[in-house]
Amino acid sequence: MSLPNLALPGQLLGSSSSYIPGPGTYLRASNIYASLSGRPITTTTSAPSPSSSKQPIKPTLTVPRLPSTSSSTELGPVSGRVSNTNALPRVGDVVVGKVVRCMVRQVNIAIMVVYNGDSGGEGVVCADEVQGVVRREDVRATEKEKVVVAEGFRVGDLVRAVVISLGDQSNYYLSTAKNELGVIMAKSEDGNTMYPVSWKEFKDPVTGETETRKVAKPF
To answer: What is the DSSP string of 74-104?
Structure first.
């Protein structure tokens, strides 16, 4: 599989049979996933001497952290195009954002990246802050009346969602009611980056404790 132009936390990048996991990635079940948002790069060490192992050298796969500034010259390489305008979501677009507030009936998300037809399938980083809301009835497709928002999301989680409505003047309405939508990266109460173990749980690799989330199925 080819590497994406922009990787998001929790996104599958490749197999450990093809790459060595480097900074910004983590290994799980022989697969390498991104632990940061950024452009994946590969580096190869110098060729071995004839007397060394005959095993082929695998490139090291790393994901450098995205720059904190959001000028158009930096957004261009990340998104695959240079744009002087802010990326605004449209109905049907997939977005990735960070949970900034959890309430009983909804979760507020600061949208960071937009995937739309204009970007050719690549993510476009939002230059300005764009707010979205996942309402309780839009968290999942079944048993909506049993949804407990606090069990599906925590402040700081990274979430993949789809825009279902332009909403009101301040928020886009988002949905995570598909298997591939939901939390893609989460940290435990102890501050450790967790990995998904089921459709509703993440696990802390250090403490072994699990926490509930509305987990997004990896691509």
So the answer is: HHHHHHTS--SS-----TT-EEEEEEEEE-S
CA 121 to chain centre: 15
Q: Are strands 20-21 and 41-43 parallel, antiparallel or unpaired?
A: unpaired
Q: Are 62 and 24 in contact (CB under 8 A)?
A: yes
pTM more than 0.90: no
Q: Can you give the pLDDT at residue 71?
A: 37
Nearest to 59 by CA among 40, 42, 47: 42
Q: Are 133 and 171 in contact (CB under 8 A)?
A: yes
**Closest to 23 measured CA to CA, from 51, 42, 6, 49:** 42
Q: How many CB atoms lie within 10 A of CB 92?
A: 10
